[in-house]
Structures are given as C-alpha cells and as structure tokens.
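Below is how a single chain appears once it has passed through the pipeline. First comes the sequence as given, then the structure the pipeline wrote out for it. We keep one example in the README because the format questions we get most often are answered faster by looking than by reading.
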Amino acid sequence: MKHFSVTATVSHERGGDDNETQTDFGPSGAGFTYAYPGGGIRTLWSVKTPIKIRIVNSRDEIAELDPKERVVHLTFHLPAVALFELMKRCPRLKAIEVPPSRFAKLSKPSLCLLEGQGVKVFPGLVWGHRTDIDEYITVDEGSILQMAGELRAEGVDSGEIVAKVAEEAGVSPGMVEFVLDSGLRPSPLRRS
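Resulting structure:
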C-alpha cells in the first residue's frame, strides 16, 4: 500500500509556538490535519472516494463499457475471447470479480494472462443489485481500510481481518484483499 505525508510548520503572527499541519495521501484519498501546540490532532478535511464497480451482465455490454473502468463484476459465462475483448476495451482494468460458480470454470491460461497484465481476478457475489436502475455498485474503501486498521491494531492475523471485514462490509473477501493491496488509487501528485 502506498502512503505518504507532507508536513509543514505554521508560524503564528502573535508569537507563540509553531504548529505543524499535515496532509496525508493514502489509498483512501487525501486528508488535512492540524496539530495543536499543547498536543492533540484535529482533522480539518478529508476526501474518501468510493470504488465504483461496473456490473456487466452480457458479453454485448463489453463494447459499451467506458475505457476508464477499473473494476468490473461479470455475471455471464466467461470464454477467453470475452476476457480478451474486456482487456482491449478497458486498458486501465485492475480487478474482475466473478461469481464463485463461474470462477471455478475459468481456465488457468486465462487467469495467468489477466494476472500477467496486472488484473486481479477473484470470486464474489453481488446480491440484490438491479442494473436497470444503476449499472454500478460502490464499495466504501475508506471504511474497509479503517476496519482493517482497527483489527490489525488489536493483533488479529491477516486471514481473520479479511474475513471479518468482508462480513461486516458486505463484500467478498477478494474485494477486501484487493482494497488492502490496492494499486487502484494513483498518487495524487501523478497524472494517470
């Protein structure tokens, strides 16, 4: 996980102690905090953007996808040709979630090709989502990272963290692993 901070010292015109301000750029967005002279930190603002997952119900929908899509959930049978079409249509693709029954039938060469291109493929279900109303679902990356951080601070091991966060957030364990390992968020200082 990439994370870095920028710290600056702020002097007061009326004298007194200098204070530090800090901007954090991490996988869940950016934030600005203020450190008080006597101690204590206050978050002044923070930005957390959810991960948008495009639900794709048929092979015909691949041709209509936005080339900037980064995470998709495929609900249909996945022949190798459809995966090639998807890779060609969405060059920025980072993750593909497929139903567990379809995941078991994916060929090893297809998985190797996708992973070689930097695309993580994992099983997962989307329950109760109506694509006639909205073709996207969102996952709150910030809450997943926060829950995982709290569990790690308690000394819980990685496998249990993934399972507990997945259950609490209502997403697949593969999605939790993807968020925790996420290469989805580029550095705010670099254009993508």
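DSSP finds six helices and nine strands in the chain.

See the next section for the split statistics.
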